[in-house]
Design brief:
The protein has 311 residues and is of the alpha/beta class. Helix content is 48%, strand content 13%. It has nine helices and eight strands. Strands 3-2-1-4-5-6-7-8 form an eight-stranded mixed β-sheet, with helices on both faces. Helix 2 (45-56) links the parallel strand 1 and strand 2 (60-65). The longest helix is centred in the middle third of the chain and has 23 residues, at 137-159. It is globular, with a radius of gyration of 19 Å.
Length: 311
């Protein structure tokens, strides 16, 4: 019995070590001096480490965060760690479309270029919680908000081309589905809602990649891995414990998760790649979950939901 337990533990620890050693790193040494980047959700987790690594490369790095206190703390920490005095904090709340519009307006007024937009902020929110805009909170933070922010900043991205839009997604999209009739209804649990929001986010940005074809602006998505971040700080205790065990077994940190985000943001070989999904700094197959007709309709529904008309 004891031998069996020891063998099982050895296999688990060995496989965990293998997963840790197999994590890919961004190996390019591209400088970002003279470039401007925005990272949403940069006060902690993957967003924080992404912003820090881009700042280390010399970029003017704008931390787009909801919490003023955490945003300013991240700004101070990244500035101290990198010596980059061009680390800027700007408040934005993806749960508030007016806040997104104000943030975008301020950026357009104060910045003369935008080379990389990293849509990192996300939430696995309660499935029955709505924002003041009348949208499901999880859908707004993961889908509607990043969509509106991207559309509003697109003119600056286009004048700064070649430029990049990088979306931090998740392979959980494989368990989602697009139902335009229930897209904004509290019908599913929070995990299904998260999967649906990530799928909708992915579909609309793939649609955007097609619309921006040959424009000089590329759009790609990243699965950073199964990582324990603040995204599951609320909710069912048992599910959080299960997820923590899964993250421990996967052996990835938020810093590890930022590697592929940075790679897609700066690597020369990604400059002309668009509409793709990257995992471990490599392009991976993206399973088609909806047809072009549904994608176009989802785009129209999303535009109406956020009150955007234009592209």
């Amino acid at each position: 019995m004891i031998c069996t337990v020891l063998i099982v533990l050895a296999v688990i620890i060995g496989f965990r070590l293998y997963l840790k050693l197999s994590i890919k790193k961004c190996v390019c040494r591209t400088s970002m001096k003279g470039k401007v980047v925005i990272v949403t959700g940069a006060s902690s987790g993957i967003g924080y480490h992404t912003a820090k690594k881009l700042a280390l490369r010399g970029a003017r790095t704008i931390l787009a965060c909801r919490s003023i206190q955490r945003g300013r703390s991240a700004q101070e920490a990244i500035t101290a760690a990198t010596g980059n005095q061009q680390v800027i904090f700007r408040q934005v709340d993806l749960c508030d479309l007016a806040s997104i519009r104000k943030f975008a307006s301020d950026i357009l007024e104060t910045e003369d270029r935008l080379d990389v937009l990293v849509n990192n902020a996300g939430a696995c929110s309660f499935a029955d919680r709505y924002t003041t805009d009348g949208l499901l909170e999880g859908m707004q933070v993961n889908h509607y908000g990043p969509f509106l922010l991207t559309m509003l900043l697109l003119p600056l991205l286009k004048t700064s081309r070649p430029s990049r839009i990088v979306n931090v997604s998740s392979l959980i999209y494989l368990f989602g589905f697009v139902d335009l009739g229930t897209i904004n209804k509290a019908k599913f649990n929070r995990v299904v809602l998260y999967a649906n929001s990530k799928l909708c986010n992915l579909v609309t940005h793939l649609e955007l990649a097609q619309r921006l074809d040959k424009s000089g602006v590329v759009v790609n998505s990243v699965h950073p891995g199964i990582i324990l971040t603040n995204i599951l700080s609320e909710g069912n205790f048992l599910f959080r414990m299960f997820f923590k065990v899964l993250c421990w077994f996967n052996s990835r940190t938020a810093e590890d998760g930022s590697e592929t985000v940075v790679h897609v943001s700066v690597a020369p070989e990604c400059a002309n790649v668009t509409g793709k999904l990257f995992v471990d700094c490599r392009e991976r197959s993206l399973l088609s979950r909806v047809n072009d007709t549904v994608a176009a309709e989802l785009w129209r529904v999303t535009e109406r939901s956020v009150g955007y008309k234009g592209y």
